[in-house]
Amino acid sequence: MKKWKIALVPGDGIGPEVVAEGVKVLQAIEKLDNTLSFEFERFPWGCEYYIEHQKMMADDGIEQLKEFDAIYLGAVGYPGVPDHISLWDLLLKIRKGFDQYVNLRPVRLLNEELTPIKNKSEKDIDFLVIRENNEGEYAGAGDWLFKGKKEEVVLQTGVFSRKGTERIIRYAFEEARKQQKSLTSISKANALNYSMVFWDEVFEEVGKEYPDVKTESYLVDAASMFFVMQPERFEIVVTSNLFGDILTDIGAAITGGMGLATGANVNPERNYPSMFEPVHGSAPDIAGQGIANPIAAIWSVAQMLEHFGEEEWGSVVVETIKEIIDEKKVLTPDLGGKHSTSEVGDYFVEKIAGKLHHK
Ligand code: NAD
Ligand code: IPM
Ligand code: MN
Predict the structure, then answer these.
(1) The pLDDT of residue 357
(2) I want to staple 105 with a disulfide (CB 3.0 to 4.6 A). Which of 27, 129, 145, 222 is the partner?
């Protein structure tokens, strides 16, 4: 029996609402497969915790999470606590603290009716964005000079280390080779005359070791247009932290919205736990109403299962999501349905149990 220890960090707003549904799915799988078991521990960290304790997580929070096989996170950030504090002291702290330098964000259309783009079908929108997740524009380096004075100047410095840039690009080439797909680098060397010139050089250099991988290189502005107009150009994309953040919200938009987009924050060396979470945030505009779409969070459970080596279960979860979307019977309002978050989760469990996937 394989036993996986999962740390739950439901966080803020709709975070706990969608994480509850992902946990239901894992518990359903555990019932169907007697070779698997999941043990959960819940950490109450987030903005409410901050208001009570003046900190986003326990002082030894990173230490506490270290012993888990995975972290399952909902969302962080809520009005009342400045975003740069809440995110830096919890979400970004985990990503950086555990060297989760690979952010895997699939952009996959499950049903052509979900895309706002004309004449695009499932086969046209099916790619993987590999986002650098630890440094770059999110290095947190900068300065605030002459605050409040007329000479005021604010610096936000991007940091692109040789190690950080090379390892993400190499990871992407390995993935492209494994999947026999093309690899597109998205950068902006025409304007960012240090960081992106370096990025492009490293992409070219590492690419020499992978003559079998077909490559493309786009500027991020043009790439944003192609994401919308010709998404079929992309198979595997590698890009920097900020560009990857923005591009994957475009990715969500072309595949059905924030309620469907998933992401895995991976430490490939497995020295530390990886973290699985939806791409969306805490959605204060709909929090507490029980109408958040749990599918993004459930899809991140599929990514977690793949990470555990349970690829078969990962595929079952994604197939089940597709069936639910195709049926259009039990959906949340963002997808035109009338059902609640927990009704979608319950229906998912009912469908997956119907598959009787005993091992
Ligand atoms: P958001 O993703 O929370 O919401 C954007 C829009 O998408 C909203 O209209 C929201 O209702 C909708 N939406 C998001 N998830 C949905 C779901 N599951 N079902 C249905 N609709 C959904 O982005 P925002 O409003 O810019 O940010 C809100 C807060 O979340 C901020 O504090 C921000 O910093 C934080 N944030 C956190 C994460 C994270 O923890 N990974 C990600 C993004 C934003
Ligand atoms: C995301 C989020 C985070 C990011 C924020 C909340 C710091 O937008 O996971 O996409 O920019 O990485
Ligand atoms: Mn984002």
Answers:
(1) 52
(2) 129
ipTM score: 0.99
Q: Are residues 251 and 261 in the same domain?
A: no
pLDDT single digits (tens) 291-304 = 999 999 999 999 99
Q: Is 12 in the pocket of ligand 2 (CB under 6 A)?
A: no
Which residues are catalytic, by number? 138, 188, 221, 245, 249
Burial class (CB in 10 A: 0-12, 13-18, 19+), 67: exposed
Query: Are 250 and 265 in the same domain?
Result: no
pLDDT above 60 for 315: yes
- Decide: 9 in ligand 1 pocket, CB within 6 A: no
Measured from the CB, is residue 102 less than 6 Å from ligand 2?
no
- Using CA atoms, how far apart are residues 75 and 277, in angstroms rounded to an integer? 8
Whether residue 310 has its Cβ less than 6 Å from ligand 1? no
Q: Into how many domains does the chain fold?
A: 2
β-partners of residue 7 are 41, 71
Q: Is residue 159 part of a domain?
A: yes
Q: How far is the CA of 95 from the centre of ligand 2 (A)?
A: 11
Residue 333 and residue 340: Cα distance in Å, rounded?
8
Pick the residue whose CA is nearest to atom 11 on ligand 2. Answer: 245
Q: How far is the CA of 280 from the centre of ligand 3 (A)?
A: 7
Three-class SS state of 173: helix
Burial code of 211-234, b = ≥16 C-beta within 10 A, e = fewer? eebebebbebeebbebbeeebebb
The closest residue, in CA terms, to atom 5 on ligand 2 is 87
Query: Model pTM?
Result: 0.98
The string of pLDDT tens digits covering residues 116-152 is: 999 999 999 999 999 999 999 999 999 999 999 999 9
Q: Among 255, 272, 298, which residue terminates a domain?
A: 255
Q: Is the pLDDT of residue 356 over 70?
A: no
291 belongs to a structural domain: yes
